Amino acid sequence: MNLDWTVVVPLKAAASGKSRLGASAELVRAIGLDTVAAAAAVARVVVVTADPRTAADAAAISGVTVVTEEEPRGLNAAIILGMPPADGPRAALLGDLPSLRPDDLRSALDAAASVDRAVVADAEGTGSTLVTARAGAAWASAFGAGSLARHLALGCVRLDVSEQSTLRRDVDTMAQLAEAAALGLGPRSVRFSTGSSLSQGGHRREA
Questions:
Q1: Total-model pTM
Q2: CA distance 75 to 189
Q3: What distance in Å separates the CA atoms of residue 153 and residue 157, rounded to the nearest whole number?
Q4: How do residues 121-177 score in pLDDT, each as one tens digit?
């Protein structure tokens, strides 16, 4: 684990967090918790959520601190709420990466350590899954549809992350969930996908 880094993961309420995905609240929550668990194998993690059950489940994961959001105000506001001071490197990671492998996140953070601010593009190349700032650098994030261009405009350096990296496969649709399943879903997500075509990728191996 790299204790220099703090990674903030905003998690929406499971019942409404993935309207385009059309999945159950249980699967949405599982996706978020698998993302958090993978990140917690690499760095300190701060989860920001207004969902009491998600908060309780996240707090049970070793290395995770939970910040309760009284009223949801969007991803970027949640990230600011959980963001630590600038005396150490910090990052924001989207909570919809059910296949995330710790080694993929670790490699990106190692690469980000050499620049003031960095961004990792999603698999489609238009959105963002990870934004970073090293110690002393000002924080800014602009997550949302088409966010990669906004993060580049804010001064982030695009990290050269492989197209096959699990860090790039965020999930907003059933087609994207199937692609994540092919990479290997985390233990919580695969449990709720068992018996469907989405589980064919099996259980990822933790690094």
A1: 0.91
A2: 22
A3: 10
A4: 999 999 999 999 999 999 999 999 999 999 999 999 999 999 999 999 999 888 999
**In Å, how far are 6, 32, 136, 155 from 88, measured between CA atoms?**
8, 25, 7, 19
| Residue 39, token pair as written in the block | 């990140």
Mean pLDDT of the chain: 90
Instruction: Give phi and psi for 89, each to the nearest 5.
Output: -70, 145
**pLDDT reported for residue 192:** 77
